[in-house]
Design brief:
Layout: H1 9-12, H2 15-44, H3 51-58, H4 62-69, H5 72-92, H6 102-118, H7 125-133, H8 139-164, H9 174-194, H10 200-214, H11 224-233, H12 240-248
């Protein structure tokens, strides 16, 4: 066996460790770019995003930004995914700590209101993105529509759980209830962001309370929506004296 000369510190550094550090640094840089992209998209929309604009905001070269995404389209999709992940964490997963049923549905709406209120001045990427891509096709629209659809599914499932718990009318359409709740948020954005109506937030909260009351099951177990329909359909006979008076007239 021949004697081996001592190796330098650089030579003794494991290659996997060096690669891991490079990977971590790359991920951190990409996270910084996405954070800046989220800020831009909330102000100027997804269509306003560009490699050049992000390079200017982050102080990086265009080639440096491009290396992390490869295209403007991939950048837009990355922003949508990041927004969706944050939305899920702050609105959906935070509400999972509440008991299933109306308490969880209420928490989801409350969290959604907090998120919406914070976006009044900046804008919601789900809503602004829908305006930008509603009449288009392609991967960006698909990513945006998929994110919104997954949230709507979660909202509808929360409604269904409230029905299973006997807190909301089982005969009512869960899609309709979720649709009305979603409509409150859209109306809130229009009233608060566009019309600058200071009472919009409170009206949205009242609207949600009215939805719960309209589809609620009373303590006696009678479903209020069914009862209201029956009241309209059943004709109450007039007393005999009233019928005789009507005939005489």
């Amino acid at each position: 066996m021949t004697d081996r000369k001592p190796t330098s510190k650089v030579e003794t550094l494991p290659v996997p460790e060096a690669g891991r550090r490079v990977l971590i640094k790359g991920q951190q840089t990409k996270a910084v770019i996405i954070e800046a992209a989220l800020g831009l998209a909330s102000q100027i929309g997804l269509e306003g995003l560009s490699i050049g604009a992000l390079a200017e905001v982050t102080g990086m070269s265009k080639s440096g930004v491009f290396a992390h995404f490869g295209s403007r389209e991939e950048l837009q999709i990355s922003v949508i995914r990041e927004y969706h992940d944050r939305f899920e964490a702050e609105v959906f997963y935070a509400a999972m700590q509440k008991p299933r049923g109306v308490p969880r549905l209420q928490a989801m709406f409350d969290n959604w209101m907090v998120q919406t209120s914070a976006e009044i001045d900046s804008g919601c990427i789900y809503i602004s993105g829908a305006v930008e891509f509603d009449d288009r096709t392609g991967p960006v629209r698909d990513a945006l529509a998929s994110s919104v659809a997954s949230w709507q599914t979660a909202l509808r499932r929360a409604v269904e759980l409230a029905q299973e718990e006997g807190q909301l009318s089982r005969v009512s359409d869960a899609h309709q209830i979720a649709f009305e709740i979603h409509g409150l948020i859209l109306a809130l954005h229009y009233e608060a962001r566009f019309l600058r109506n200071p009472g919009a937030t409170e009206r949205a909260r009242q609207g949600f309370s009215h939805i719960l009351a309209r589809y609620a099951v009373t303590p006696t177990g009678v479903e209020t929506r069914t009862a209201s329909k029956s009241a309209k359909l059943v004709s109450v006979p007039k007393p005999a004296a009233a019928r005789r008076k009507s005939t005489a007239d």
